[in-house]
Design brief:
Length: 749
C-alpha cells in the first residue's frame, strides 16, 4: 500500500537512537513495534527488519569511529576540502590529515596574514603544518553543547592547533569534484559579500548558498526566538521552486525525460553548493527520488519518498539523527504530508497558511523545547506572514539580484531586508513574548508526542479545539512539574574564572542565583573582533536558567562588584524576571546603576540578615555594617539546604576570614565554596580548622593567568581531608537533594 514506507522508516530512526545507547528510546521502540503488531500487523515485519538492521548497523559504524592519532606535538600534511571559516582573528576548518579528519583552529597574528590566508586557503590546498593535537572539550555544564560529542559524530576526534601557517609550505593540488563545487560556492558567497550591503549580504548568502557567516547574530537570534529560522535554511520550498523553474525552462528545448535526467545529475551538485545541511540533503534526495520515479513513468506517494529519503540518509550517516535540522526537517515535513487532506480543505489561502503554520508548530514543538527551551506566542502568526513573504518576494529577488547583480535590484532587496529585520526586531526584542518551559524530560516528551498525535487525529475529525486542549494540557503539566517536585538542587556552574551558583528549593518555593560571572572585555583591533564573541551570560548562564524552566529569580545575590561576579547580570536580567537584587554595601552604587534599566529593586545586606523558606535557612555572615571594601567586603552566605550546611565565601581574604572567626567562633560547614577561586590569600589554615568542611568546591577557570587554585590552598584542604571539586577539572558540580538527603554529581568525573 502507498504511504506505508513511513513505518519501517520510523522504526529505523528509533533504532539508531536506541543504539546510542538510550534506555528511554529502547522502550519507545518496543512500544512502537507492539503497537504496529496490534494495529498494523502487515507493517510489523518490515518495521522489525528495519529496526534490527539499523540497530546493528549503527553499532558497527560507531565501533569503527575511532582515531589512530595520539595527542601531543605533530607535523601533519592537511588538506582543505572547503574554505576555512575566518571570524576576526580566528581561523577554523575541518581538514583531512591522512585517513582522518581533524578540526584545525588557529589564531591569526596580523591583519596582513588574515588577508593572505583568506586568499590562499581554498578547497584543494594542502599544507604541511606543525602543532599540537588536543582532545576537544566535553560539555562542562548541564544542558550545554557537547563539542567533543558533536565532533565525534562528524568523525573528528582531535583539535589541531598549528604554531603557524606558512603559506610557502602550501600547494594547490588537483581538486576533487566536491572541492571544485566548494570553490564555486565560496566564490559565490564572496561575490555576494562584495556586492550587497552588509545587512542584506547575510540573508542573500543564506538563501542562495546556505551560508550564514555574514548574518548578524542579533538577526539570527531574533529569527530563532520567533520560530521562523527555517526561512533562512534551504529546504523543500527552495528545491521545489528551483526544480519547477528549471523543468519549466528545460522542456522548451529538450524532452521531459532529458530534462528530468539533467536534474537528477544537477541536484547532488546543488546539495553541495547549498551547504549540504540535513534539510538540504533531505530536500534534494526527496526530489531525486520523485524525479527518478517520474523518469520511469511511475508515481510515488510523498510519504514514501520522504521515508526512503530518511532511510538513505541514515545509511549515508546514521549520526545525522541527532542533528536538529534533520529532526525538524523530517518531522515537520511528515506532519504536513500526513495532514495534507485537511490542509487542502482550507477555504482560503489565508486559512491554508494558518493551518500549515499551526501544523508545523505542533509537529516541531517537542524538538524546539528540547533544544531551545522556549517558544514564541507570535510564531504561528508570523509564519503566516513570513512564509509567503519569503517564498514569493524575498527569495526570487535574492536569486535575481545575485545572478544579474543589477544595482536597483540589490537596492530593492536591501530595503526589503531592512523592513523584514525591523519587524523581526519588533517582535523579538521590543515586544518579545516568549514562553520559557525548559527542557522536557523523557516522559514529558512522551506526553507531548501523545498529545500532539491526538491533536492531529482530532483535527482530522473536525475537533481541532479538543486536540489543541490536549497539547495545552501537556504544556500546563510541564509548567507545573517543578512545583510538585520534592527535589531541590545547588549547582555551581562552570563559568571559567568567575562565580555563578544556582539554588532551587524543593517544590520550587524559591530560586536564587549567587553571582553571574562575567566575560572580560579586552580592547581589540577592529580586524580581530569576532562576530559572536563568547559571553558567559548569554552562552552559559541564561541557557542553563531557561533549560531549567526558570522564568523568575526570587533573588539575584551579587556578592560584590568585581566583573567576574556581576559582569553577566544585565544579560540575566534581560532574559528572566528578577524580583530583587541583594548585594554588599560596597557594591550597592554599581549594582543600582546596572539594575536601573531593568527596574529591579536593589538592597544591601549585612551581617545578621537572615530568612527562611520552608526547611531552607539563609544567614548573611559578612560584611558588617559600614564595610565598603571590595573582596573583604564581599557578601558571605551560610545556608542550610537539605541535610547539609553550605558556606558561600565569595572573594573574602584572610582579614575577612579572621573577622568571621571572631564573630562566629563555632562556625561549621559541610560544604565550603572556596573563596576567591582558591587564591593563596584566602582559605587559611586557621579558617579551615574552624569551619571543618567535608567538601570544598573551587570555581576557577582553566589555565587561568593567576595560577588559581594555589597549591598551598589545595594542600590545606587535603590536610583537612576535604573532598575537592574544581570546575576547571570537574565542570559543574551539582547537589540534588530531598528530605532524605542528597547526592553530588559532577559533569566530568
Amino acid at each position: 500500500m502507498k504511504g506505508q514506507a513511513v513505518y519501517p522508516a520510523a522504526a529505523a530512526l528509533f533504532a539508531v537512537a536506541a543504539a546510542s545507547p538510550s534506555k528511554t528510546t529502547c522502550l519507545l521502540l518496543i512500544i512502537y513495534l507492539l503497537l504496529l503488531f496490534i494495529r498494523r500487523p502487515h507493517c510489523f515485519l518490515p518495521a522489525l527488519v528495519a529496526a534490527l538492521f539499523f540497530f546493528v548497523y549503527f553499532l558497527i559504524v560507531d565501533h569503527h569511529n575511532k582515531t589512530s592519532l595520539s595527542g601531543g606535538r605533530h607535523s601533519l600534511s592537511v588538506r582543505f576540502s572547503a574554505a576555512p571559516a575566518i571570524d576576526g582573528d580566528r581561523l577554523q576548518a575541518a581538514v583531512q590529515a591522512g585517513k582522518e579528519r581533524v578540526q584545525l583552529r588557529y589564531i591569526i597574528r596580523t591583519a596582513a596574514e588574515k588577508e593572505a590566508l583568506r586568499a590562499r586557503l581554498m578547497p584543494g590546498v594542502v599544507c604541511r603544518l606543525s602543532g599540537m593535537l588536543e582532545r576537544p572539550m566535553p560539555a562542562s555544564n548541564p544542558y550545554a553543547f557537547d563539542y567533543r560529542r558533536y565532533l565525534r559524530r562528524h568523525r573528528i576526534h582531535w583539535l589541531f592547533l598549528p604554531e603557524a601557517i606558512d603559506l610557502s609550505a602550501c600547494v594547490r593540488v588537483r581538486p576533487t569534484i566536491i572541492e571544485r563545487l566548494e570553490a564555486i560556492r565560496e566564490a559565490g558567497v564572496r561575490r555576494i559579500e562584495a556586492q550587497f550591503p552588509p545587512e542584506a549580504a547575510g540573508i542573500a548568502a543564506a538563501l542562495i548558498y546556505g551560508e550564514r557567516r555574514s548574518l548578524d547574530e542579533e538577526v539570527i537570534s531574533g529569527y530563532q526566538q520567533l520560530g521562523i529560522i527555517h526561512l533562512l535554511a534551504i529546504s523543500g520550498g527552495h528545491v521545489t521552486l528551483l526544480v519547477g523553474a528549471a523543468l519549466a525552462a528545460a522542456i522548451r528545448f529538450v524532452t521531459r525525460e532529458a530534462a528530468v535526467l539533467a536534474l537528477l545529475v544537477f541536484l547532488p551538485m546543488y546539495a553541495v553548493l547549498a551547504g549540504a545541511s540535513p534539510s538540504v540533503l533531505r530536500a534534494c534526495a526527496t526530489g531525486m527520488i520523485v524525479l527518478a520515479v517520474q523518469w520511469k513513468k511511475g508515481m510515488i506517494h510523498p510519504l514514501d519518498a520522504l521515508s526512503w529519503t530518511a532511510l538513505a540518509l541514515l545509511v549515508f550517516d546514521p549520526y545525522m539523527v541527532w542533528d536538529v535540522g534533520f529532526q525538524l526537517s523530517f518531522l515537520v515535513t511528515f506532519a504536513l504530508l500526513a495532514h495534507v487532506s485537511v490542509l487542502a480543505s482550507a477555504r482560503s489561502m489565508l486559512q491554508n497558511l494558518f493551518q500549515t503554520a499551526l501544523a508545523a508548530q505542533l509537529a516541531a514543538l517537542p524538538i524546539l523545547l528540547y533544544h531551545f527551551y522556549e517558544i514564541s506566542v507570535w510564531s504561528i502568526g508570523l509564519n503566516v506572514f513570513f512564509v509567503p513573504w519569503y517564498s514569493f518576494v524575498i527569495l526570487p529577488i535574492a536569486f535575481l539580484s545575485a545572478v544579474f547583480s543589477f544595482s536597483p535590484l540589490i537596492w530593492l532587496f536591501s530595503r526589503l531586508i531592512e523592513l523584514t529585520d525591523a519587524v523581526v526586531r519588533f517582535f523579538s526584542v521590543d515586544y518579545s513574548f516568549m514562553l520559557v518551559l525548559g527542557r522536557p524530560g523523557p516522559w514529558c516528551l512522551a506526553g507531548y508526542l501523545t498529545a500532539i498525535a491526538a491533536a492531529f487525529l482530532d483535527w482530522e475529525r473536525g475537533r481541532l479545539i479538543r486536540g489543541l486542549t490536549a497539547v495545552a494540557a501537556a504544556t500546563a503539566l510541564q509548567l507545573a512539574a517543578p512545583y510538585v517536585d520534592p527535589k531541590g538542587e545547588v549547582t555551581v556552574l562552570d563559568v571559567g574564572q568567575g562565580d555563578c551558583i544556582y539554588i532551587e528549593l524543593p517544590y520550587r518555593k524559591a530560586v536564587y542565583l549567587i553571582d553571574t560571572s562575567g566575560t572580560p572585555e579586552w580592547v581589540r583591533e577592529p580586524w580581530r573582533k569576532r562576530s559572536r564573541p563568547f559571553a558567559v551570560g548569554r552562552d552559559v548562564v541564561v541557557p542553563f536558567l531557561k533549560a531549567q524552566g526558570v522564568r523568575t529569580l526570587d533573588q539575584l545575590i551579587l556578592t560584590h562588584d568585581d566583573a567576574d561576579h556581576i559582569g553577566a547580570a544585565p544579560e540575566v536580567m534581560g532574559a528572566v524576571r528578577v524580583k530583587k537584587i541583594v548585594t554588599s554595601p560596597g557594591a550597592l552604587p554599581a549594582v543600582k546603576a546596572m539594575a536601573r534599566p531593568f527596574s529591579v529593586s536593589v538592597a544591601a545586606s549585612v551581617r545578621g540578615d537572615r530568612w527562611k523558606v520552608g526547611d531552607a535557612a539563609f544567614s548573611v555572615l559578612h560584611p558588617e555594617a559600614g564595610n565598603n571594601e571590595d573582596n573583604n567586603g564581599s557578601l558571605v552566605l551560610l545556608a542550610r539546604l537539605g541535610r547539609l550546611t553550605w558556606l558561600f565565601a565569595a572573594d573574602i581574604e584572610e582579614e575577612a576570614e579572621q573577622a568571621l572567626i571572631r564573630a562566629y567562633p563555632e562556625l561549621r560547614a559541610d560544604v565550603l565554596k572556596v573563596a576567591h577561586h582558591g587564591s593563596k590569600t584566602s582559605t587559611t589554615e586557621l579558617f579551615l580548622r574552624t569551619v571543618k568542611p567535608r567538601a570544598a568546591i573551587i570555581s576557577v577557570g582553566r589555565y587561568n593567568r593567576y595560577g588559581h587554585p594555589s597549591p598551598e590552598v589545595l594542600m590545606r584542604l587535603r590536610q583537612q581531608r576535604a573532598i575537592i571539586w574544581r570546575t576547571d577539572e570537574n565542570g559543574a558540580i551539582r547537589y540534588v537533594y530531598d528530605e532524605n538527603g542528597g547526592t553530588f554529581q559532577v559533569m566530568k568525573p
